[in-house]
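Thread: Newbie trying to understand structure tokens

Hi all, I'm a second-year student working on a class project, and my supervisor (Dr. K.) asked me to get a predicted structure for one chain before our next meeting. I've only ever worked with sequences, so writing a 3D structure as a token string is new to me. If someone could post the tokens and maybe explain what I'm looking at, I'd be very grateful. Here's the chain:
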Amino acid sequence: MLNRAWYFIAATLLLASPAAAQTGTLDKIRTSGVITMGYLENSAPFSFLDDARQPQGYSIDLCRAIASGIRAQLNLPGLETRWVALTIQNRLEAVSSGRVDIECSTTTWTFSRQALVDFSLITFLDGGSILTRAESKVARIGDLAGKRVAVITGTTTEKVLRSTLSRRDIRAEVVTVGNRAEGLKLLDDSGVDGFASDRTALIGIVLSTKTGHSFKLLDEDFSVEQYALALPRGDAEFRLAVNRVLARLYRTGGIQPIYDQWLGKLGPPSLLLSATYFIQGISE
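---
Reply by user tm_fold:
Sure, no problem. This is what the structure looks like when written as tokens:
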């Protein structure tokens, strides 16, 4: 009798599983008529607020394309895109808790983070670097011995920077800050000798300030950062919808005008980034 009861329960669960698998972010979007996207306000040229207080940037445009693709997939011409400002410290929690459906900025894909959220296809490749004042004699990471280096707390950059300094026995003091604007100000005020962050983001923040000529980047990077969009963990249907849009952009060349608008002044995509686009241009 017990065995029969067990088989009945197992069969019931199996029959119910397809319906359960269909519930998730796409169903929430279909029901609410809203897709909620998180962003950072000071991560130019990937994610920032313009003068009209509207989100702009490379990652923002990717997410706008994704919203358009989901609008078409769900046949919801009136689908609203709602933007939610996040911080570097709470962006993953916002995705895992369901406060936002997708996070559109400069999040590096790591296995430890994938225990909390899922990730889209890779959207950009960058490297951790260090910004110094123009008059500084610091030319390479080894020159930071005995000096102070700022880094944003809770980032992969902080973790890799500390590891690099330890591995190379460079005795530098690491000073944590809350965001890139805070790190740049500390550097500008001579509170630290360097500010570590992703190279492209450092270029973006320097280009956006009137004192950009006062800084320089080291020639040496200390990490590779694979950016991807953070998604709800375990939601295969939503991840498929997101990746389908990104793959189409990569496959058709639709990524090029987005790159040119936000990153073109830095030169064409690197060979590695071009290969990343090409490899991820997965066909239908």
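A couple of things are worth pointing out once you decode it. DSSP finds eleven helices and twelve strands in the chain. The domain at 24-125+225-279 is CATH 3.40.190.10 (D-Maltodextrin-Binding Protein; domain 2). Feel free to ask follow-ups in this thread.
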